[in-house]
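--- STAGE predict ---
source: upstream dedup step, 1 unique chain passed
mode: sequence only
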Amino acid sequence: MVKTLTQRLGILLALALLMAATRTHHSLLHHFDALPDASWGIFFLAGFWLRGTGRWAFPLLMAEAVLVDYLVISGQGIDFWSHYCVSVAYWFLIPSYFSLWLGGSWLAKHQLGLRLPTLGLALVALLVSWAACYLVSNGSFYWLSNSVPLPRSFASWFANLGDWYLPFLQTTVLYVGIGAVLHVLVIQMARALKHADQPNLPR
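--- STAGE serialize ---
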């Protein structure tokens, strides 16, 4: 779909609000605590819906993710860089999330509309980009973070990969699936409205 700048900004705003609501467990957003973090799904969907805007849209979403983390951690009275999840490995979230963006962008370029082959392409794009994101983020944390006790080994890393594999995959697929349903509904509604606006042709 060809989207205007206003539509792209609207999509970006909606995704940013979803990230803010699910990435934090801040007391002001306590009623969203039950929702899992949508960040991984958001970056994939953003790459799909906002393809061609990566120079500004991706940095904005990335900056928001860091800002939310900073506000939540500092709001707990903890120094940001002393938090368990923050180390030099934290900056590897940039290539991790960008791999998801690239997966969504690739799908947007190669998708065939609302046809069954597009579903297959979507699964491939999501699984490949998600795997890259997971390996980089998990691997950088395991090998570079001081929060992981020594000694480290590939056997322990593979065990850690297995522990978090399904939870992260399920959450990402959930949000991308919801986005896909919304995408189909919007296209179908747009087609219906366009058809309704067309004058009846003489028989």
